[in-house]
Amino acid sequence: MTQLQDVSLDGLSHLVSERALRGETMLLNMGPQHPSTHGVLRLLLELDGETVVNCIPDIGFLHTGIEKNMESKTYQKAEVMTDRMDYMNPVGNNFTYCLAVEKLIGLDVPVRAQAIRVILAELTRIQSHLVWLGTAALDVAAMSVFLYCFREREQILDIMELVSGQRMMTTYIRPGGLWRDVPVEFEAAVRDFLKIMPKRIDEYEAMLTKNPLFLDRCLGIGVISGEEAINWGLSGATLRGSGPDYDVRKFAPYSGYEQYDFDVPTRTQGDVYARYIIHIEEMRQSIRIVQQALDKLPLGPVRSNNYKFVPPPRSQIGTSMEALIHHFKLWTEGFYPPKGAVYAATESPRGELGCFLESDGGPKPYRVHFRAPSFDNLQVLPRLSKGHFVADLVAIIGSIDIVLGDIDR
Amino acid sequence: MGLEQKLGNMGVATVKLEELVNWSRTNAMWPMLFGLACCAIEMMSAQAANYDMSRFGMELMRASPRQSDLMIVAGRVTRKMAPVVRRLYDQMPDPKWVIAMGDCASCGGIFNNYAVMQGVDEVVPVDVYVAGCPPRPEALIHGVVTLHEKIRGEKFKDWA
Amino acid sequence: MSDVLQNHHARLLKTFGGATTEHAGEITVILPAERILEAARLIHDEMGFDYLAYVTAVDYWPEENPRFHVAYTFRSLSQKLTLHLRAPVAGIKPSLASIESVYRNANWQEREVYDMFGIHFEGHSDLRRILMPADWVGHPQRKDYPLGYEEPQYSFNFDEIKARKPAPKE
To answer: How far apart are CA C8 and CA C30, in angstroms?
Structure first.
């Protein structure tokens, strides 16, 4: 298994232009280990000097077989694997999977759990955009932005740790609600964060938005029109930078998003700079949503009380026989949802993240497929990078915000 | 010690050559950027301002294997990626060390299937394993400090 | 369920035959696999569904006919509608027409279905493996493909498994 595979050029000759086969242009491998490819992405570049004529992405270096592996675990235990797909948005992955399971079963989630889910999902969005900003700016050689962004991110990770015990892969959102209620310090911690964050976003903008070097690197690079973007199936900031205002939170609201007042930023230029502005605006809108959700946070239970599918609270196990039996059955066998297939989508920081779930009546998912936003967003890379320099290619990869765990699953 | 007493305050120190070499190897160890998956983000956090790894000598991460001496395998290694890992390890000049960061690099983690190697020690020899999914930045720094302690005990004949 | 969507479903059933199933408020239209390209053109040009969310497949082994269901989901961004489609495909030499000419992102989505399930897409510009290495044998997400897990090492079988586990020479 550790033999290097020889892929002959004949197999790929339909993808490169005539000039490559004659030897006029150079074929360069931008290999799986590269500082600017945001993970293990391999690009075969066909270069004419420094200009990219064609670019063939080769993915699969992080393919973990999560979908097949989930078929051999029960629904609750399979959820642990969903965190690790799009590792910048673990809460969002859990959220999507739980929405699909709840839709399949027909389970109602209490309003307090819905509000806390929204707060955590938006905090994860801010955290993902901070990492995006840090690494994308690093790609265009603005190195100090990286350190600034990670400073704020630590505060968000402290909130995640307060709530669930884990910094990143929390598995806090479970089918039926949440794992347990948030501790009393949660509200104070989130309010502290919300107080300082808007000024910090202004700091990042002060460093980059009007910076002539940044503008030179980003304006007019990687342009795509709105209609073409829809036909290519793009979503998220990559699509909204070109015009269409498709956001799953407004298209098909879930978990109480219809009660919150927020805007979906769009631009029409469709270049790297437009996507950067949209990411910054989205961070501000997320702060707005968290503020509203926290102000309106209702009291109540955080888990559904349908104990056939959702584990009963541990305190009841000592006193109630039914609770003990439900707990036992759930953790040894799992629950039995009705037969059928559903599709549930949420808006991840990258775009439309969807979960296609099919059940055959048994305790393990029969087929799980995740519609990964970065998968479709990366497809358009050859189209975006034609005619640009290699350095611009790096800026484009940065702007379409891909996470290889999402693509390869 | 005796030499210093005789020479007084002339600014001379004596030390064993092995200790000097090992000390210099640990204090300026440059890791290779080899973040594969989620653990890479915690590795970046460990490098960033809050849990600074530059305090321990890892000032910057080199992208090229020819210029680095530590490979921190952060993340799950799949069967498609395995020959690449081995090739990069071979391209690193001696002396070189490998830290397997996270559960997936140590033993395959939660993924026990056709696509993931059950531990990166199936392709490269590993010096320190850091457990966690993902390990906290402090755990990674503890792993790095453990590696430093291991290196202080090395002898020349290991690398000859 | 909006009337516009119900009209679309009725029109698809009338033009191509097939059936619908429903679960949890979502209606899925099942169309015959031979007419999927025509259906995709109709859906894109006349019904206004301009966005393909995903193409995936489900394996119903050991049922041989049909063994696979290829599932599609289309969205209409202007009308805020979602359409779910399925096409049953047989198990021996499974193949289907590619809808890449209508929806560009079907390119990689169908490559992934080919890689994982072995379903051929006719008319696809570049059908080769995408997630697995190019020389991999077998289609991993089929139900008759083993998961390939390694047996856990306990103290009683520690040495046998250690002998079988690959280790680097240096």
So the answer is: 13
